[in-house]
Specification:
This protein folds into two domains: 243 residues, no CATH class; 107 residues, no CATH class. The chain has 14 helices and three strands. A three-stranded mixed β-sheet has the order 2-1-3. Strand 1 and strand 2 form a beta hairpin. Helix 2 runs parallel beside helix 10, helix 10 runs antiparallel to helix 11 and helix 11 packs across helix 12. The longest helix is centred in the first third of the chain and has 32 residues.
Length: 369
C-alpha cells in the first residue's frame, strides 16, 4: 500500500501529467472553435453535393434525349429518361430547401433515393452505389423517426466530439498515456540502476510492480474523467436529442443503429481494457530490456504486429483470441459481422493478468547490478 501511494503521488504531482490535462482541455476547446468556424462550410458542401447530382442527371437527360431522337422506338431508353427526369425534379426541390428545414427536405431526398435505386435496377448508370443509397435511406428514416436533426460527420458542434473519430483519439491518447506514465518511468529507473536503491529497502519487490501498475491505472482513469468532463461541458452547447444521436453500424450484414452514448461507452470500455494491457506489457518489456529505446521499440513492434493481425485476419471466431483487436477500435465497433463488440475483452483481461504476474515474478528474481 505504501508503494502504491508513493508511485501515485509521484505521478499525480508531476508536471508532465499537468501538461497532459492542459493539452486535453485545449484540444477540446480548439476542436469546438474549429467546428463553429466551419458551420458555413456545411451548407456549401451540401449544395455542392446536390449540384453534382443535378449535373449528372442533366447530362443523362441530354444523352437520353439525343438517343431517342435517333431511335424513338427504344422503350427501355425512354423509361430510363422518365425515371431520371423525375429524379432531377426532386433534386431541384431538395436544392431549394434549406438544411434547417430538414423535416421537409429528408422525405423528398428519400423519394429521390428510392427512384435512384429503381433507376439502377432498370440498368441505369448513376454515381451513387446501391450500398450508399441504402445507408442514406436508413439514416434519413432514423432521423425522421427519432425527430433528431442530421449533423455533419466532421464539423458538427457536438458529434465530432462524440462520434467515430473520438474512438481513435481516445485510443491513441490512451495507449500513449498509459505507456508514458505506466512503464516509462520504471524503465528509466531500471536503465539508470536507481531501482537498486529500492532493492536494498525492506519492501517486497513484487509490490514495486503492483504499485506502479495500479497507480498507472488510476491515473489513466483520472485522465479519462478529465477528457469526458471537458467533452460534456462542450455538450452544453449541443442540440436537442444529442445523446440519442444515431450511429450507424453493420451487424451481421444488416444496417443497424446504436445511440452515440452507447457507442462512446463501448469504445471507452474496450480502449481502457486495452490500455491496461499495454501498461502490463510495457512493465514486462522494461524489466526484460532495461533500456528505454529498446523497450519502446519492442512495444511499438508488438503493437504494430498485433494491429496487422487484426487488420488482415478478421475471422469472427478469432476475435475470442486476439488481444490487439481494439488498438484502433472504430472499425471493430462499427462492423459487427458475426462478432459482438465485447468479444475480445476476456482474452485481453487474461493476457493482462499473465503479463502482470510475469512482471512481478521477474522483479522478484532480479538482483542488484
Amino acid at each position: 500500500m505504501m508503494q502504491f501511494a508513493f508511485e501515485l503521488k509521484k505521478i499525480l504531482f508531476s508536471k508532465k501529467l499537468l501538461y497532459v490535462y492542459l493539452f486535453i482541455i485545449l484540444g477540446v476547446v480548439l476542436l469546438f472553435v474549429r467546428n463553429v468556424t466551419f458551420q458555413p462550410y456545411i451548407e456549401k458542401e451540401e449544395n455542392e453535393r446536390i449540384g453534382g447530382l443535378i449535373e449528372k442527371s442533366q447530362s443523362l437527360n441530354r444523352m437520353y434525349t439525343a438517343a431517342l431522337e435517333n431511335n424513338p422506338e427504344d422503350e427501355e431508353m425512354d423509361k430510363l429518361r422518365l425515371i431520371n427526369s423525375s429524379m432531377l425534379a426532386k433534386l431541384y426541390e431538395v436544392r431549394e430547401i434549406k438544411s434547417d428545414k430538414w423535416k421537409n427536405r429528408l422525405p423528398i431526398e428519400n423519394a429521390f433515393l428510392k427512384e435512384a435505386l429503381h433507376f439502377k435496377e432498370e440498368g441505369g448508370d448513376y454515381d451513387l452505389p446501391v450500398g450508399e443509397i441504402n445507408k442514406m435511406l436508413a439514416m434519413n428514416h432514423k432521423h425522421l423517426s427519432e425527430n433528431i436533426k442530421p449533423r455533419h460527420a466532421t464539423y458538427s458542434i457536438l458529434t465530432e466530439f462524440l462520434e467515430a473519430r473520438s474512438g481513435s483519439v481516445y485510443e491513441l491518447w490512451g495507449n500513449h498515456h498509459s505507456g508514458h506514465f505506466g512503464g516509462r518511468n520504471h524503465d528509466k529507473r531500471v536503465e539508470t540502476h536507481s531501482i537498486n536503491f529500492l532493492y536494498t529497502q525492506p519492501v517486497n519487490k513484487g509490490n514495486i510492480i503492483t504499485g506502479k501498475f495500479f497507480s498507472s491505472i488510476l491515473v489513466y482513469f483520472l485522465t479519462a474523467i478529465v477528457l469526458i468532463v471537458a467533452t460534456a461541458l462542450v455538450g452544453l452547447f449541443g442540440f436537442k436529442g444529442k445523446y440519442k444521436y444515431p450511429i450507424m453500424i453493420e451487424k451481421n450484414g444488416e444496417i443497424d443503429f446504436i445511440t452515440i452514448v452507447d457507442y462512446m461507452g463501448q469504445g471507452l470500455t474496450v480502449i481502457s481494457i486495452t490500455s491496461i494491457m499495454v501498461i502490463a506489457l510495457l512493465l514486462v518489456y522494461s524489466l526484460l530490456f532495461k533500456h528505454t529505446l529498446a523497450t519502446i521499440f519492442a512495444l511499438l513492434a508488438t503493437l504494430v504486429a498485433g494491429y496487422g493481425l487484426s487488420a488482415f485476419i478478421k475471422t469472427p471466431f478469432l476475435f475470442w483470441f486476439n488481444p490487439f483487436q481494439y488498438l484502433l477500435p472504430e472499425e471493430r465497433l462499427l462492423v459487427r459481422n458475426g462478432a459482438d463488440w465485447y468479444q475480445g475483452i476476456p482474452v485481453i483481461l487474461l493476457v493482462t493478468i499473465v503479463l502482470f504476474l510475469i512482471a512481478r515474478k521477474k522483479i522478484e528474481t532480479s538482483r542488484i547490478n
